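Problem 12. The chain below contains 324 residues. Write out its predicted structure in token notation.
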Amino acid sequence: MTGPPAAQAAGGPRQRPGPKSGRPEGKTVGRHELAHHPRFAEISPELGVLDEQAAGLALARDPAAFELLAAMTTATDERLRAAAISLSSRIVLDRARAGRDSMRGISRLRPARGAADGDLDIDASIDGVSAARIEARPVVHDDLTTMHWARPRTAFAVVVDRSGSMNGPRLAAAATVAAACALRSPQEHAVLSFAATVDVIRPLVSDITPAAVAERLLRLRGHGVTRLADALQAAGGQLAQARARRRVVILLSDCRSTDDDDTVETARSLPELIILAPADDHEQAAHLAHLSGARWDTITHPLDAGAALDRLLGRSGEPDPEFR
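Solution.
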């Protein structure tokens, strides 16, 4: 992890962030630019073609090739762009599932005897129903076993910067984190994106699948200003509905807010804030973390985002049985 740079003391003069350096809205990446990567020709030998077998071999030999695949999700070539989004989302979800065994605290279905609600477990209820028949009495709740989701220990709100500095690899990192949160807390995780406005991609409680969320994140185009306070406030609003005791906002951004707003005060008001920033543009993120008390880390490779999240979640200042 890259250590935080020296941050200004709270109350010092405010540094005005530099302008966003991303592409204008709707601009895409042509084959000539993508061809600067040495593996592009083998992965996309001709217009509109993505060779998944070649991509798999390239990733096996050089994990950094995923950054090329992520960049291809913004390709001008529509067929290539669609194929890259589809393959990238599958890789992100497979990577998240591969780390599932190490994720403690994932919500699970648990049996409950005598409960008045839940989904009936027929096999587990056979003995109770048989006993009622032998005793010539009606079947009651105590004879039945139902399945319930255990109360989640943690609820997440993933907040993704889609302003001008966001590119394919950064959006792929966001999709990786969203997938990791979906596996950690299937019932209570929200995903939001923001620039000048805030969009809710997945409300806290929803049947939208992780695959659909990943694809939508990969289809975002970086453009516009960064109204960070509004996004954090919206994330806090999503978490206000959660049943979980622990509520975490996860912000993926360089935190270069382009408005004079109350970002620090809003960040301080959240129950828990984690910031994941690009390794090559993290100074403002470190500064916000310093002022707000958030924990932060940098992301060098998109697929490493889930591991960075796990490290930060495990460093909570509050003891939590989920992470013992």
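Discussion. The longest helix spans residues 78-98. Students who got a different answer should revisit the alignment rule from Section 12.3.
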